[in-house]
Structures are given as structure tokens and as C-alpha cells.
Amino acid sequence: MKKRLRAGQWFRRAIGFLLFIAIVGTVRNVFVINDLSDARVELTDRLSPAAITAGELTTALVDQETGVRGFALTGEERFLEPYVAGRRNAAAAERRLQGLGLDELHDEIDAVVAAARAWETGYAEPAVALLRTDPEAARELAQVEAGKARFDDFRAAVGRLQAQLIPARAEARDRLDEGADILLFWVLFTGVVILLSMFFVARGLRKQLVLPLERLSARVRDVAGGDYEREVVADGTLEVVNLAHDVDTMRARIVAELESLREAQADLKRSNAELEQFAYVASHDLQEPLRKVTSFCQLLQQRYGGQLDDRADQYIDFAVDGARRMQDLINDLLAFSRVGRIEQPLTDVDCNALLERVRSDLSRIVEESGAEIAAGPLPTVHADAGLLRLVFQNLCGNAIKFRGEAAPVIRIDAERDGEFWRFRCSDNGIGIDAQYAERIFVLFQRLHPRTQYEGTGIGLAMCRKIVEYHGGRMWLDVDRGDEPGSTFYFTLPAQPEDR
């Protein structure tokens, strides 16, 4: 099996190679720069200054010689100014020349300095002193010839020094040129190697990471598009291969989940079919004998009421009431089962108009109880008008049914809560203990005996199911404190154009 490298290993190898080239190039450049520095110091700080200083020394002696000649011809002291300046310049040039540290040219430098001083002490100084005491001495050719010989010795010494300096300077320049060429080579070589390395690293990363990821993405898109049987595999770095394996494992799990979902859907279809069959039986087969029992019990009550003893009349009353209550339970159960199963098209429902219809439906009990149903501005929602009407009707009807001593006051309003409308229905009735906040929404659950309050206990369960069918939720406010009555909240999605 081919051993695959991780992306990090690729990066480490590439960076390690680049660091190696950079270190080698840097070390080599350091040595080359050091050689260049030595050659520059040798040429610019020692050899060239030596040649220049030797020339300055020669110029200083020429100035001295010119001053001596002018003084000898005129006898005037002012002509000795070049001589005095020349001596000063010569002394400075000698000190600089000896301070350059040219050990390899020590003998030549000493010879130049000695020849210069020999000309000054052996000819210039005695000649000036003699001319000041005996001007006629300037015409003695022996003195002039002696000065010329000493000056020629000085020139010869300078020539020997220059002869040594010229090849040394040429050698230093050659070292500078060679070092510059080497430095340029290594700079260019390092740059080219780094560029080539970056190219090959980029090419390797594209081959081992980018392209495999693109192919993996294409396969994942195919699976996301519905081709769940397509295996997700990839080559390249170990991370990409492992990622492909994990994605394929997830695909296999999704396939298994889909298969389970298909089986669950089939079971759900069978369950729905059975539920529809039960609804049919409950609405037809069960209600038919129930209606017959109810009818005959009512006939017994009407025809033989008062003709039998009191206990027989009581039994007949129990039978009529039980049959009627059974029929109410079946009807309510059928209505509950139809919520969300028999879908009606959703329309824009004006809740203000809907509440007016509920007031009309409850007009009799509203009038009898003296109830007041007040409402703030209510929104228009996208819903099943018939089902939503049942929600308002059950809430208002319960508020009137479970009223206290005061006349019922029901308040309904709504406010925006993000992508939903939150409705609030409050009353001043007997209230509901917080511990029963969830029990009241359970099917057929009652908090009071049937003899005290009529009903089957399905109303709030029906309301919550209708609200959840529309995508909202419903709950009881348990934070009213000592305030009498109950408050119910429920939410409905806002219309798309309102979001």
C-alpha cells in the first residue's frame, strides 16, 4: 500500500528544504561579504591612501625645493613660504604613511621617509642656513648638485614604493571583483532555487491537496444532489483520504437512515390508513349503534318516565346521559384527529374579523353571563380560518365557562415577536394553578368534576394542536402572581411580506 503523507509533512519537508538553501546561501554570502570587506579595507583604507600619501609627500618635497631655489635666487624670505608649508605637509604625510600599517611594505615606506628626511637635513636645511649667512653660497654648484642627488634618491624610493603598491592594489581590486561575482552568483542562485522550490511546492500541494479536495467536493455535491449510492473516495494527502473516508461513512449512515425513514414512512402510511379506517368506523359503524342506544333510551325516558319507580327513572337518566356523553366524546375525538390530516388551503385571515364571528357564535352565553370580549388591533395571518376560529372560540368559551363571581372580562391582543405574532388571551376567571400548566393541554384531562363544569376536556388540547399545526406554540402564563384569572399565549408565523 502506498504510504501517504500528511499535508503537514509536505509543508515541513518543503520548508526544511527552503531553510537549508537559505542557510547555505546565507553562510556562503557571509564569507564572501567578509572577503569583500577585507579587500575593500585593504584597497581603500591602506593601499590607495599609501599611494596618495606618497604622491603628497613628493609634492611637499617639490614645494620645499621650489622655495629653496626661489630664496637662493632672490634672497627674500617670502620665497621660503613654499618651503615652510612643504616641510609641514611632508611631516604630516610621513606620519600618515607610517600609520597605515602596511607591514609588508615596511622597508619601502621607511626608505621613502628616510630619503625625504635625508634631502631635508642633508640639503634643504643647510642650504637655507647658508644662504641666510652667505648669499653668495647659492652659486656654488656643488651644493646644488648634492641636493639634486638626494632628491633623485627620494624619487627612486618613491618609485620603488609605487612599484609595490600598483600590483597590490590590482590584486585587491581583483579580490573585490571576484567577491562581487561570487556574491551575485549566490544571490541569484539562492533566489532561483527558492523560486523553483516554491513552484514545485505549489505544484505538489496542488496535486496532493487542492485537486483531491476539488474531486472530493464534486463527489460530495453528487451525494448531496441525491446520488447516495456514489462512494466518496479521494487520493492525495492523508488528511484528504481520511476526510473522504469520514464523509463516505457519513454517507453510508445517511443511506441507512434513509432506508429506515422509508420503512418508517411506510409504517406511517399504514398507520394513517388505519387511522382513517378508525375514523370511518367511529363516524359510521360506532355512531350508528350509539345513536340507536341513545334514541331508545330517550324513548324509554319519554314513554315510561314516571311509570316506573324512581330508581328505574334514575337508571334511564344515567343511560341517556352516558350515551349522549359518549357521542360527544366520539365527535370531539374525530374533530381532534382531523386537525392536520384533512388539510385545507391556507389563506390570509384577518383576526379582527375572525374574532367578530366568534363573538357572534358565543352571543347567547355572552349575553347570559354579561361577558365582555375586548381586543386590541389584531394582525392578518396566513392560516386555516376554520381551525383558527376554533382556537379563539375555545379560549373565549373557557373564559366564560370558568368565570368567577364577577362578570367575565376577556382581553385579546397581539404583538410582533421576531418572525412570529404572539397572541395573548387573558381573563378574570377562576384561574389555573401553575402545577397544571401542562396537564390542561392533555387530551380528555379535566381539573373539575363534570357535574360542576360541562365539557369533554378536549378544547385546550385541540387549540394547542391547531397552533402547532400552523408552526407556532401555545402555553399558559404561570407568572401572574396574585392577579385573578388566566392568561394564555400562542404564536403564529408572520406573513412572508411582513418578515
Explain what the structure shows:
With 499 residues, the chain is of the alpha+beta class. The protein folds into 3 domains: 7-209, Four Helix Bundle (Hemerythrin (Met), subunit A), CATH 1.20.120.1730; 238-316; 344-498, Heat Shock Protein 90 (2-Layer Sandwich), CATH 3.30.565.10. 68% of the residues lie in helices and 8% in strands. The protein is built from 10 helices and 7 strands. The chain has helices at residues 7-74, 81-98, 106-133, 141-224, 238-304, 310-338, 351-361, 363-369, 385-401, 459-469, and strands at residues 347-350, 372-375, 380-383, 409-417, 420-426, 474-476, 487-493. A 5-stranded mixed β-sheet has the order 2-4-5-7-6. A two-stranded antiparallel sheet has the order 1-3. A hairpin with a 2-residue loop joins β4 and β5 (420-426). α1 (7-74) packs antiparallel against α4 (141-224), α2 packs antiparallel against α3 (106-133) and α4 runs parallel beside α5. It starts with 6 loop residues before the first helix and ends in a 6-residue tail after the last strand. The model has no long low-confidence stretch (mean pLDDT 76).
- Main sheet strand line-up: 2-4-5-7-6
- How far the N terminus sits from the C terminus, by CA atoms, comes to 57 Å
* Proportion of strand residues: 5-15%
Q: Any low-confidence stretches, pLDDT <50, length ≥5? A: none
Which percent bin holds the helix content? 55-70%
The largest sheet, given as strand count, sense and whether it forms a barrel, is: 5 strands, mixed
Number of helices: 10
Q: Structural class of the helices, strands and pairings? A: alpha+beta
| Series of secondary-structure elements, N-terminal to C-terminal | HHHHHHEHHEEHEEHEE
CATH hierarchy class name of the largest domain: Mainly Alpha
